[in-house]
Every structure is written in C-alpha cells, then in structure tokens.
Amino acid sequence: MPTRRRKQFIHGQFAWMVATVFLLVLLESLSYELFFVLSLIGLLIMTELTTPVNVTPEWRRRIRWLIGIGLVGFAVIVTRRIVEILPPEVLPL
Known about the structure:
Blueprint lengths: L3 H23 L5 H18 L8 H28 L8
Keywords: Membrane, Transmembrane, Transmembrane helix
InterPro entries: DUF8044 (IPR058357)
Pfam families: DUF8044
C-alpha cells in the first residue's frame, strides 16, 4: 500500500510532466529532449520537496538510481548538442 508521501510524490511528478507537455505545446517547442530535461528538473524538485526529515523509506533510495540514470541521459543530450555546435574541423572523425 503506497504511503501518503509516495502518493504526493507520484501525483506531483505527474502534474509537473503534464504541465511541461502543455507548456511546450503552447510554446510550439515540444521535443523529446526538452521534455526529458524538464521532467528531470521536476524529479529533482519533487525529490527535495517531499524528502522526509528523520527516516528514509526504501522507495526513496530507489529514486537515487532514477536520478542517476536521468543525469547520464542529460549528459548524453548535452554532449550531442555540443558536438552539433562545434565546427567539423575541431572534431577528428
């Protein structure tokens, strides 16, 4: 049975992601990369806002893995963007 804080976390993250899609569609700049980055930011914010003071439940420990995977994905996106921006003579391919 999910705890109250876990439900708050899931509902908050879901609301953040729906708002992100709505805002990106409204601005006509919806892309997988932007959605991923903004969802990761929402995950980090929700993790901080719902952190318990004294005890860390087991489900909170698993969020670290999700954040780590998200940060690796973010690094891949940033690296791809940097490679796209650099002139061809800078990178020996």
